[in-house]
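re the bet — no i am not wrong, look at it urself. input seq straight from the record:
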Amino acid sequence: MELAGGDDCHLTILPMASAEPLDTALYQRWQFEEAGCRTVDFLRFDREAADTAAIVDRLANTRGVFFSGGDQDRLLDAMAGSRLLSLVLENPELLGIGIDESTAAVFTSPTRFEVVCESQVVIWDAADANGVQSADDGDFSARSVRLHLLENGQGFDLRRRRPLGIRSEANGQ
């Protein structure tokens, strides 16, 4: 909550991974309000609505995003054949960032984040990929795709598309 504004906390809950998204969002909103967060919203949307102006605008006005628990796959088990990797190969200007359970990417600036976790964050970068091909069955092949695995205390610079190894580097110090 401190990173989401402290006394003027503005937090948005994304409960879509929960078995009961509405009940989860309402309960978590109550928890954050009881803990002193001044403004707590929640959003429920599907994949098609994720990039709409309405969703982007609502998220642009928040200072912190909380992903509720639920039915996420363990990240490292799901990496092979990942939908995230397919998305990045189709859109190499994007980075694919997978955040595992009990893990957070804490933004220390608009272009840098630090990993706080019990597990890992994976980042797929296809900006320099070549030979990208898609088969009729949905499988891809590609060369020179970067994979970054970050653990607790490590950071990442989104602008430079490179990992930062220590906490002081992630905080820009």
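see?? The chain has two domains: 1-71, 72-173. told u. also The first helix runs from residue 21 to 34. so pay up
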